[in-house]
Design brief:
By secondary structure, this protein is α+β, with helices and mostly antiparallel strands. The protein is 23% helix and 47% strand. A hairpin with a 2-residue loop joins β3 (66-78) and β4.
């Protein structure tokens, strides 16, 4: 199967969503998330695209001090669909760290890569 994606490009789209300037812009997030997007939050709650856009726009800079990620891996599921997995650490303003194993599915839609699914699963630390 011929791959139609560049792993570095997909990773860069994912990392755009780490930036407060993007997270706070409903227009920017709308371009990165596909219609029908679904996210399974750490809490187990399911959110749709509109809920995620609203939540990120009102998140504020105090909620997320830093987000770091590592161990990126990408797997092709089809010519126009990829699975991106990685580990993340989010530190809040209190310094407490939230570790997660994250997965995103990106699909090439009308010539543009968009995220169709995202999930964050809590882990004890990045070492796991």
């Amino acid at each position: 199967m011929a791959l139609r994606h560049n792993p570095d490009l997909i990773r860069s789209f994912e990392e755009e969503l780490f930036k407060q300037s993007i997270r706070g812009s409903p227009e920017a997030v709308d371009k990165l998330l596909a219609d029908g997007f679904v996210e399974l939050f750490r809490s187990g709650r399911v959110y749709d695209k509109e809920e995620v856009i609203r939540g990120l726009a009102t998140e504020g800079t105090g909620t997320m001090r830093t987000l770091t990620a590592r161990d990126f891996d990408i797997k092709s599921l089809a010519d126009d669909v990829v699975l991106l997995t990685y580990r993340s650490l989010r530190k809040g303003e209190n310094g407490k760290g939230l570790h997660s194993l994250r997965s995103s599915i990106w699909k090439l839609i009308d010539g543009r890569w968009q995220m169709v699914f995202h999930q964050g699963t809590p882990t004890a630390s990045l070492a796991q």
